[in-house]
Amino acid sequence: MYKLVYFGVPGRGEASRVAMAFSGLEWEDVEVDGNTFDKMRTNGELPWNMLPVLQTPNGTIAESSAILRFAGKHSGLVTSDTFQEAKVDEFIDGMGPLARALDTTFGISDYDERIALRKALFEDGGAGKSSLEIYEKKLGESKSGWAADTEDMSIADLKLFTELFALFSGNYDGIEASVIKNYPNLLNYHSKVSNDKRIRDHYSDVTTEDIRWTFLPGAFNQ
Ligand SMILES: N[C@@H](CCC(=O)N[C@@H](CS)C(=O)NCC(=O)O)C(=O)O
């Protein structure tokens, strides 16, 4: 039995949740709060003192990208072509700056300061805007339409789809869903992935009230 342990938000756990759901492995989605996180850290259950972790019969795997690669191999979303695999890894690792940019806004308790920082991320010169521009360009260049130009959906798509669009769910105050309207390739990509049968089926229980509303077809249509 596998256990994917993360906080009760999409964040850095969602791509692996989807990959585990596709894997056919017997697994449990364990959502923890801050107290449980503190206990796990104190008990030495977190190899790098952070979440997510995947508890496996062989031991615990930490780091969201490592977990995603593991889960992806079990779900048929990792190609055996070494070049394509490296391009998928490149995309995954290339998404680092966006996550780090967002990280700089966590733990800022002053509301106005936090909102100003988050808005600045997606304005000219902001790290978020630079990331979105790179994704926009890469998707425009992808012949297959998948993030790393693979023949079929890859783990890079799970990461891009879940981490990018979750930013605009309202969970991060100061980041407006309207930002995404400036990126036609990202919107087309959203349509492609959210309408993919595998993804649609996975989120079939999600409603527009849910934190995961940004993963639904047509989420950004208005
Ligand atoms: N590089 C790590 C970063 C993980 C990370 O930042 N986890 C955050 C939650 S999104 C965390 O555990 N924060 C708690 C803390 O640092 O106290 C990964 O990708 O897994």
CATH C-level name of the largest domain: Mainly Alpha
Architecture of the largest domain, according to CATH?
Answer: Up-down Bundle
The portion of residues forming beta strands comes to 5-15%
By CATH, the topology of the largest domain is Glutathione S-transferase Yfyf (Class Pi), Chain A, domain 2
Radius of gyration: 17 Å
**End-to-end distance:** 42 Å
Q: How much helix is in the residues?
A: 40-55%
Described by strand count, sense and barrel closure, the largest sheet is:
4 strands, mixed
The strand count comes to 4
Total number of helices = 10
Total tally of structural domains: 2
Q: Sketch the topology as an H/E string, one letter per element.
A: EHEHEEHHHHHHHH
What is the arithmetic mean of pLDDT? 96
Morphology call:
globular
Ions, cofactors and other ligands present here are: glutathione
How would you describe this structure in keywords?
binds glutathione; Glutathione S-transferase Yfyf (Class Pi), Chain A, domain 2; Glutaredoxin; 10 helices; 222 residues; 2 domains
Helix/strand layout:
Blueprint: E1 2-7, H1 14-23, E2 27-32, H2 34-42, E3 53-56, E4 59-62, H3 64-74, H4 82-94, H5 96-103, H6 111-121, H7 127-141, H8 155-166, H9 184-194, H10 197-202
Parallel strand pairs: 1-2
Antiparallel strand pairs: 1-3, 3-4
The protein binds glutathione (GSH).
Residues 11-12, 50-52, 63-64 line the site of glutathione (GSH).
Protein architecture, described:
With 222 residues, the protein is α+β, with helices and mostly antiparallel strands. It folds into two domains: 2-74, Glutaredoxin; 82-215, Up-down Bundle (Glutathione S-transferase Yfyf (Class Pi), Chain A, domain 2). 48% of the residues lie in helices and 9% in strands. The chain has ten helices and four strands. A four-stranded mixed β-sheet has the order 2-1-3-4. The longest helix is centred in the middle third of the chain and has 15 residues, at 127-141. The chain is globular. The site of glutathione has 7 residues, from loops. Glutathione (GSH) binds at residues 11-12, 50-52, 63-64.
